[in-house]
Structure formats: structure tokens, C-alpha cells
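so my prof wants the structure for this chain in the C-alpha cells format not the other one, which i didnt know existed until like an hour ago. anyway here's the sequence
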Amino acid sequence: MTRLEGIRGNGIGRRSFMKGTAGALLGGSALLGAPALLSGCGKEGGSGDDVLTIWHTEPTPVTQKALDEIIQRYQAENSGLKISAEPVAWADLVVKLRAALEAGNPPDIVQCEPMFVRTLQSQGLLRNVDEVVKSFADGDYRGFLEPMFRFEDGHYYGVPHAWGVDLISYRKDLYDRAGADPAQATWDDWKETLKKVTNPPDTYGLALAGKDTHNINEEVYMWVGSNGGRLFDADGKPTFTERPVLEMLEFWRDLAKERIISPEWTSMDYLATLSAVAGGKAASNLTFGRTAYTYQEEAPDLVAKDAFGVVPEKPVGPSGEDWITQLDAEPWVVFKEASRADEAIDFLKFFYGRDNYRSYLTTVPIQLLPILESMSEDPEYQQNDDIKRWSSWVDTQKKVAESGRARPLMVTHWQDLKRPYLVQIYASGVLADMVTSVAVDGEDPGKAAANAQRKAEQIVADYE
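here's what i got, hopefully its the right format
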């Protein structure tokens, strides 16, 4: 088994996410917020009285092993306490979590997407993790992360396990051969550059993952935000019919029509886009730091020649003035009614201890960047071979994050993170349907956007 098997990047398939009653997950206090649902904690599906249960979304084997070793050290110092750590695929997390909450068996600790935190806390399900944050040295918690889960009441309801930034990755040799510069300021210039490195059916300029709703959602919100647009107005109403969204759809249509992206893009998952660049089937993709490990495994000769690079900036759409990108910063959250909530807080404090945290981060160090400034300066951390080999990728992610351009999934403007129905829009498939109806089926962008707008408005109304 390689370190990439089970990677999170393949995202959440639309059908698996919405199967059965899962579409209602986190969708109303009648389902998840009722005190009766959390009145007791049994063993099945969640946390037993003598077990601290952790669900995490890092199924990469080397990361699992590091977490298991941290757990073993914690158990050795806390005799009598058992800890069960379970990797949960993103496609299963929503269904599994909803079932556990309904049964009154929530895990003690869960790793989730940032958008989940507001929804769960709006239903009174989370315990604050203030003690974890207070265990960090003053000023050590990275400034672009610290406010994310600090709510209006002053309490923290989540803390990221690590962070990373979505970048454009590219094959230097393919761009050099075409005399093309991967760094372009506008969508129009980017499209013309991508044409230069496109030679269908052998090579396409850009690899996009369209098999899963999750990945289409990623591009939609990043491109809308980079076009001066938004997904919601100041009152929280969906804004899918606004000009920046329509222009995003037109841009996607052009990429498909002009064969800059593969005709098979809707059947490609995230891992396939990484392999496409590694194998020369695509000249570039949109990706996180974990891509480096695909390159090392599938194209070691090219890695040795420094053939892979990342672009320090992203292009801006015709209505935009600046660009945004995705901030991957999945938080640990602790359920208020979990049977081992006190121990959960204590374990998280232990997890962020210097030696423990270093051992976790360095399993996939280009993907799992530290939330603590002091860890970045730690001499042993800096000596990691991958950190040294891919230092330009690490430095670029840090510069982008500190610029304020990196935002969590589905968040074009920071206030969007406060929308408790963000998960419903994300999971509904409405954005993916809007894109594919235009880019694949040839539907007019205005018609597709109006249809998506109606559906989104109904989702918001149903939630409220």
C-alpha cells in the first residue's frame, strides 16, 4: 500500500453523499439538535463510557500510523483509558456522523470541513476547545487560522489539525517546450497559455476533476471569488445569477469546448488529475501539496530533474480585481455530549505537543503544514527531507495564506463561513449540476444559473 491510497482528494461523490436520508445531515435542529437524541452514549456507532473515540479523515497509512503512535503514548501516560481512532472516508463521514448523533452515540472527537462547525454549533452540539488553544504559546497560533473557529461568544469550537493551500501545479518541461509561461494575470491570458501546452488527445492544458461534486464545488467557489463574485449576498441569499457566476460558467464552457480540458474530465477523480500531470497527459492541474508524493512515486526521474513547479498566483476573471484560492484547514471538534469530552480536550492538548505534532506533520509534510509558528522553526522539522526537497511549494503556500487570499471551501467572503446551511448547498449537487449542464450539455449559462438559483433558494428556505 502506498502513502497515497485512501487520499482525501477524491472528495465526496454526489450520489454517495446524498444517498437516503444523508441529504438532511446537519439540516435542522429537529434531526440533530434535539436534546433527546443526545441523552445517552452507548458503544455502538460512537463512544463508549470506557473508550475515547476519534474519527479522522486522514486515511493515508503513514499518517494513521503516526496518530496511532501518539495515542499509544497518551494511553501509556493515562492508564485505564482506551482510545479508538477510526479513519472515515469523506464519502461516509456525513452519513456516519448523522447516524451516530441520532443514536446518541457521537464520537468524542471528529475531524471535519470548516463549514460543518457553524452548523453543528448552531444546534448546540459542540463543546468549546478553548483549553486546547490556551495550551499554545502566546502568538504561536498562526494569525490567518486563529479567528476561523472563534465565534461571536469569544469561544473556539474547532482547531485545525494542519493546513494547506490549493495551487496551480505544472510540468516545467512541457511549458518550456511550448515557450509558455504558466503564471498569467487574467483568465483570457491563462486560456491562451493553456492552449499552447495543449495537444489533444495526448496532452491537455489543464486537468480538472469532474467525477465528484466535491471537486467541482472547489473550482466553482474559487473561480467565482477570483472573478469579483460571491455565492451569497450580505443577507445570505444565493447569488448564482449574478454576472461573475455567469462568466465563470462561460469560462468553464470555453475550456471544454476548446478541448483545453480532457473530454473525459467528468469521469476523472482528483487522483487521476495528479497522475495526468505526472504522466504528461496534462500540463497542469489545481492541487494541494500531497501531489508531490504522486510525482515522487509515478515520475521519480522528473522529480530528480526538478520538472514540477507551482505558480505563486492565480489568474483573475473579467469582473475581478484579485484572486482567491482554497485554504485546507480541517478542524478537530469535540461533541458536548460525548462520554469522554474532558479526556478529548486533554488528548488534543497532548496531540499538539512538540514531538507528537512533529511526528504527525512529517508523514505528509507538504500537505500537512503546522498551525503553530514555532513548529515551522523547529530544527528537526526543518531537516525533514521532503520539506527541503519541496521547499518552494511550502514557501508559496505560506505566502498565499498570509496574503489573505486563501479561504475555506465554499467561502468566497469570510462571512459565508457563518452560513449554517453551507453544508446543504455544498452537498446538494446544485453547483455541479449548473456547471455540467453548461460545459457538457451546452445549456445557456443564464438558464442553468437561474435553475440553480431556484434550487439553492429552496434549500436555504427549507433549512431556515
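also thought this was worth mentioning. Residues 445-463 form the longest helix (19 residues).
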